[in-house]
Amino acid sequence: MENCRLIELTSHGDNRGSLIALEKEHDVPFxxxxxxxxYDTKRGVPRGFHAHENxxxxxxxxxxxxxxKVDNGKEKEIYELNSPEKALYIGKMIWxxxxxxxxxxxxxxxxxxxxxxxxxxxDYDKYIELVNGGGI
Length: 136
Prior knowledge:
This protein has one helix at residues 124-134, and strands spanning 4-8, 11-14, 17-20, 34-39, 47-52, 57-63, 66-71, 76-81, 86-90, 95-99, 106-111, 120-121. It is mainly β. Strand 7 (66-71) and strand 8 (76-81) form a beta hairpin. The longest helix is centred in the last third of the chain and has 11 residues, at 124-134. It starts with a strand and ends with a helix.
């Protein structure tokens, strides 16, 4: 799917443990303006259900696991994030739904923009209309 892909992160480690560094233009394909994480999500409670007009994100499950369903209006894919060595890049105008969170899941989200509630598209029918020629 265009505008959405898995990125393998490089882990550095020895007998003391492991470290992953995220760097602009190497691992993160945009300027970082915001970082947050989702944790303590109750069993069976999905998250997301929105798209962003201009925001890009990198999702990393730093602990535990979860699934991300992405949708570009024409095709859908499901990614399982279950390792801190995998990141899911989600570009502009991609609908996302996060679900099947393990009890220990910590999902870190790195974003290209500051929080702006006006930038969210939370109605799926409106999203489909926009990506199929309705314009923004």
